[in-house]
Amino acid sequence: MSSYQAPITDMTFNLFDVWQLDQYWQTNGQLQDLIEADTAKAILEEAAKICEQQIAPYSADADQRGAQLTDGKVSLPTHYYTAYQSLVEGGWTSLSGDPQYGGMGMPKALSMMVDEMLCSSDIAFSLYPGLTAGACVALLQHADDTTKQTYLPKLYSGEWSGTMCLTESHAGSDLGIMRTTAKPNADGSYALNGSKIFITAGEHELTSNIIHLVLAKLPDAPAGSRGISLFLVPKYLLDANGGAGVRNGVSVGSIEHKMGINGSATCVLNFDDAKGFLIGEPHRGLSCMFTMMNYERLSMGSQGLGAAERAYQNALAYAKDRLQGRITESDANKAEPIIGHPDVQRMLLNIKAMNEAGRTFATWVAALLDKSKYDNCVVSGQRANLLTPIAKAFMTDQGFDACVSAQQVFGGHGYVKEWGMEQLVRDVRIAQIYEGTNGIQAADFMLRKVAADKGTVLFSLLDDIADELIEKPHVSAAPLTKAVTDLRAITTQLLQKENVVLAGAACDFLALVSYILYGYMWYKNLMALDTSKHSSSFIDAKTHTANWFFSRILPRATGINATLNNDSVMLYNLAHENY
Amino acid sequence: MSSYQAPITDMTFNLFDVWQLDQYWQTNGQLQDLIEADTAKAILEEAAKICEQQIAPYSADADQRGAQLTDGKVSLPTHYYTAYQSLVEGGWTSLSGDPQYGGMGMPKALSMMVDEMLCSSDIAFSLYPGLTAGACVALLQHADDTTKQTYLPKLYSGEWSGTMCLTESHAGSDLGIMRTTAKPNADGSYALNGSKIFITAGEHELTSNIIHLVLAKLPDAPAGSRGISLFLVPKYLLDANGGAGVRNGVSVGSIEHKMGINGSATCVLNFDDAKGFLIGEPHRGLSCMFTMMNYERLSMGSQGLGAAERAYQNALAYAKDRLQGRITESDANKAEPIIGHPDVQRMLLNIKAMNEAGRTFATWVAALLDKSKYDNCVVSGQRANLLTPIAKAFMTDQGFDACVSAQQVFGGHGYVKEWGMEQLVRDVRIAQIYEGTNGIQAADFMLRKVAADKGTVLFSLLDDIADELIEKPHVSAAPLTKAVTDLRAITTQLLQKENVVLAGAACDFLALVSYILYGYMWYKNLMALDTSKHSSSFIDAKTHTANWFFSRILPRATGINATLNNDSVMLYNLAHENY
Question: Looking at this predicted complex, what is its ipTM?
Answer without folding.
Answer: 0.97
